[in-house]
Amino acid sequence: MSTAENTVDTLAREGESMVVDGTTLTIVRFFDAPREVLFEAWTDPDQLAQWWGPEHLHTPRDSVAIEAVVGGFWKASMVMDDGSGEFPAVARFTAVEPPSRLELHEPASEMFPFEITMKITFEDVDGRTRMTIVQHFATESFDFDDSVKGWGTSLEKLRRLAS
């Protein structure tokens, strides 16, 4: 997917976006909740299990483990609702600054044979929280079709949880 093609984000609201630039996906979302609420939704296993994963997938609570300190782990497995597949993710925190910033590093795995980094920031903007996610795939190219759809519906689940 080229940058021009991948600016369409059907779940975005005014001022929000999801844009691909090479092998980096940048997402901006606004929430009617304090940034502490969003930060906790990323770092509390009970909450993460409620929103992590796009439509037709869920994240069993027993698959989630989070130690939100630099060097700590972040683990979660999305499971197809029909049981036909599982998508585990295991990352380490490289930055934890409550309630403003998280950074994660996921080493190469069987599913993704390259490193992935993710930076999440939470900013107060006119009584709302702007959450920005920058996800970078350390590879020559990446097809973001599934990521764009998946992030869109996952973040809608997060929006409902945070409201």
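The record above closes out task 2.4. Task 2.5 opens with a second protein, given below.
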Amino acid sequence: MTAVTPDLQPGTTGGPGRPVPAVPVEVHFDDLDALGMLHNARYPVLVERAWTALWNARGLAFDGDWNAAGDFCNAVRELTVSYEAPVLRPGTYAVHLWIERLGNTGLTYGFRFCSADGATTYARGTRVLVRLDPGTLRPTPWSERFRASARDLLPRD
């Protein structure tokens, strides 16, 4: 489901010298807007699907029970997307994923939405998540299991 790409150019991912996962995503005809371009609101949805596939491949999954969701009980605090080129047709694309910062209760991840071969960047951005306690909806620390699974997505020291 996920592949690891070779090191990409500095600035195209979370940093040079670090391979990043590339998760395939499908753009469908109904994802396109009236101008025939991938609708701007679909990029975050496709990135979310890529993250879900990555975590599922690592044995971390959400089964629908918020009280048992653990690290999947989180909320978006901030989302930034820079659109660099339009996606003009349905097909298979890729999303490169990395974590820029993993704090006690929050994390910032980066993404690059690109062609399946990685040659063309269509969008890039970041998203800040905060892990929540399902009972209080207050910030709570990430689990050690999650931290261990995320270490290789962090920048190298």
